UniProtKB/TrEMBL annotation:
Protein name, entry field: NERD domain-containing protein
Entry's transmembrane regions: 6-24, 60-81, 93-112
The keyword Transmembrane appears for this protein: yes
Residue intervals of the NERD domain: 123-243
Keyword Chaperone: no
Native source organism of the sequence: Alteromonas macleodii (strain English Channel 673)
Alphabetical keyword list: Membrane, Transmembrane, Transmembrane helix
Pfam family, one: NERD
Length: 292
């Protein structure tokens, strides 16, 4: 029990800060509130990734604080124990030191893992924003763009509707290797379902895009009462794409998006059909809660 009491004294400053933050937040919420309903706003581009970035940032902060705390506890415990007159705690310092150092290293490893997730999420966010910016340049008033369309266990990054059909766009952000004087460092090659980057081969993205488009087709067909086919598209911003073999589905740079949608001159969906599809997609992009 002595060690628990000494640890409580050691953790008191941290607990005080957390308590102060919680009280401040509660008092602020009582004085004012957001003047609109979160749930009735649409998801912005990369909304899911922004949530992941937030969660990983909080994890990194918590585990960094814990690792700092665990590292300093073996040194602060003897001092506090001596001031309180708990001799047994000081006698077992080596045992407590080993335990806390192990906990500190574990927490530090978790913080580094969270930092890695932050970097991955940041890349994905920037990629989706690049695609969103490219889509925003489409001036055709018959075109609608929806972001972060929600499915049961996944999300579709962007969905574009226009008289020529429905495009389900899967965005992939990939870093380029820093290789000096190498023309291949900015180039990827496409061969069927295989996407060959300079440093690895991607064989899953095409299948992922096809699965997501199939789900969207079934969802829209069921909800609108008419046959709707969503076409999958993979967009990889910032890369020069070379085609060694005709791809199974369109794979392109984000700057090619506006040209790709305009290639379909055939009118598949009239205004009434587009309105019904767009209404269902609006429902799939609503936030639905005030969580962020």
């Amino acid at each position: 029990m002595e060690i628990l009491f000494v640890m409580t004294i050691s953790l008191f400053p941290f607990a005080l800060v957390i308590l102060f933050a919680a009280c401040y937040n509660k008092i602020t919420d009582k004085k004012s509130r957001i003047p609109f309903d979160y749930a009735r706003t649409a998801r912005i581009p990369a909304f899911t990734l922004l949530q992941q970035h937030r969660d990983s940032s909080l994890d990194m902060l918590v585990y960094t604080l814990l690792s700092t705390l665990y590292f300093q506890l073996p040194f602060s415990l003897p001092t506090i124990a001596e001031l309180l007159g708990f001799v047994d705690v000081s006698k077992n310092w080596l045992i407590y030191g080993i335990i806390f150092f192990a906990a500190a290293i574990y927490s530090l490893s978790k913080a580094l893992r969270a930092f890695s997730k932050i970097r991955i999420a940041r890349l994905g966010i920037e990629a989706e924003w690049a695609v969103s910016f490219a889509l925003s340049k489409i001036s055709d008033n018959r075109v609608r763009v929806f972001h972060d369309v929600q499915a049961p266990n996944f999300n579709i990054d962007h969905v574009l509707t226009f008289p020529g059909g429905v495009l389900a766009i899967e965005t992939k952000g990939r870093r380029k290797p820093n290789v000096k004087n190498s023309k291949s460092s900015h180039k990827l090659t496409v061969e069927g379902e295989k996407i060959q980057f300079p440093h690895y081969t991607d064989t899953s993205t095409v299948e992922q895009a096809k699965r997501q488009a199939d789900w969207l087709s079934k969802q829209l067909t069921q909800s609108t009462g008419m046959s709707v086919v969503a076409s999958p598209v993979v967009v990889i911003p910032g890369w020069f794409i070379e085609y060694k073999q005709k791809p199974v589905i369109p794979i392109m740079n984000h700057n090619s998006l506006t040209k790709h949608y305009a290639l379909s001159k055939k009118t598949v969906l009239d205004n009434s059909s587009l309105d019904r599809i767009n209404h269902q997609l609006e429902a799939l992009t609503m936030r639905g809660s005030d969580l962020f």
